[in-house]
Amino acid sequence: MNARNSYPSLLDPDESDGSGGDSSGQQGHRIIPGELDLSHKVILYLDDINVSFDGFKALNNLCLTIDAGELRCIIGPNGAGKTTMMDVITGKTRPDSGTAFFGQSIDLTRLSEPEIAHAGIGRKFQKPTIFEQHSVFENLELAMKTDKRVWRSLFACLRDEQRDRITATLRQIRLDAQADRPAGLLSHGQKQWLEIGMLLVQEPQLLLLDEPVAGMTDDETMRTAELFVSLAGKHSLVVVEHDMAFVGQLGGLVTVLHEGSVLTEGPLSVVQEDPRVIEVYLGR
Fold first, then answer.
1. What are the CA-CA distances from residue 13 to residues 20, 104, 106, 196 (Å)?
2. What is the dihedral of CA 104, 109, 115, 116, to 10 degrees?
3. What 3-state DSSP class applies to 32?
4. Exposed, middle or buried, 145 (CB in 10 Å: 0-12/13-18/19+)?
5. Confidence of residue 211 (pLDDT cuts 50, 70, 90)
6. What is the overall mean pLDDT for the chain?
7. Which residues contact 68 (CB under 8 A, 6 or more apart)?
8. What is the mean pLDDT of residues 148-154?
9. Helix 188-200, helix 160-172: angle, nearest 10
10. Per-residue pLDDT at 126
């Protein structure tokens, strides 16, 4: 699917009064700049994104759309542009050209990294980053969206709804029995789940997950697949991964990147049989 052919018209908040059609074709739907608008059921639009580094074209007219609630896997050889794509989405890298929208009204190219995170996009890198001297529960508490100023932090007290959210997240990531354990004593897979939980307590709409099962045992990999499938629907997930067995467990669409562009996309069973994918990535 080419994103440019599936785009609704995107509102420039500086040039329009904010009116437009909704997903059912009715008139009068109002787009409010700065608020996530999913009226077209699409959470992420990348259109003709180009990024070059010292003459190397990392992204080449990249077009991609992700539906709200979708679980999408991104695969491709090293240098295909997977990490650069996520850097653009999170504001770490500015594209040379092209558009990147979160929903209908949030132009990601105009926001800083903290603003993008606050808008509802969470990113997990391959190596987990947790507070190893703190308990699992405290890691989730520290990750919540709260006032982080020193004075407020010294006298902060969890509200009941915040405590309930942490408890529910602990169950989701299967660490409820480890709540009081120092995070540094967790297994590698459990540390990965904890970092995912630290994203979940921030209530993101879109999760970007970079090689989340690297270094995991088979059992941890299976449990991670179950976790991601359970999150889809309430959250949208973009998973960059090389483990084809894990990708197969997730189901859904797979997008193959090559030389900064979408080579093809479809179910894994179809993608794996594509001669172009075999040639550039999977091998014969």
1. 12, 10, 9, 33
2. 60
3. coil
4. exposed
5. very high
6. 86
7. 38, 41, 42, 43, 205, 236
8. 44
9. 140
10. 80
Tokens coding 154: 């010294």
3-state helix, strand, coil in the chain (%, to 5): 35, 25, 40
Structure tokens at 106: 């949030």
Residues 6+ apart with CB under 8 A from 192: 124, 128, 212, 213, 216, 220, 224
Nearest of 219, 193, 68 to residue 130 by alpha carbon: 193
CA distances to 12, 58, 108, 153, 256 from 78, in Å: 35, 11, 25, 42, 12
> Exposure string (b/e) for 195-208, b if CB count within 10 Å is 16 or more?
bbbbbbbeebbbbb
Average pLDDT over residues 105-114: 94
Q: What's the rounded Cα separation, in Å, for the pair 125 and 189?
A: 14
Q: Does residue 29 have a pLDDT over 80?
A: no
Burial of 172 (0-12, 13-18, 19+ CB in 10 A): middle
Q: Judge whether 78 and 260 are in contact, CB under 8 Å.
A: no
Task: Report yes or no: 75 and 256 within 8 Å, Cβ to Cβ.
Answer: yes
| Domain annotation for the chain: domains and CATH numbers | 1-120+209-284 (3.40.50.300), 125-203 (no CATH)
| Least confident stretch, 12-16, 68-72, 105-109 | 12-16
Mode of pairing for the β-strands spanning 206-210 and 121-124: parallel
DSSP type of residue 224: H
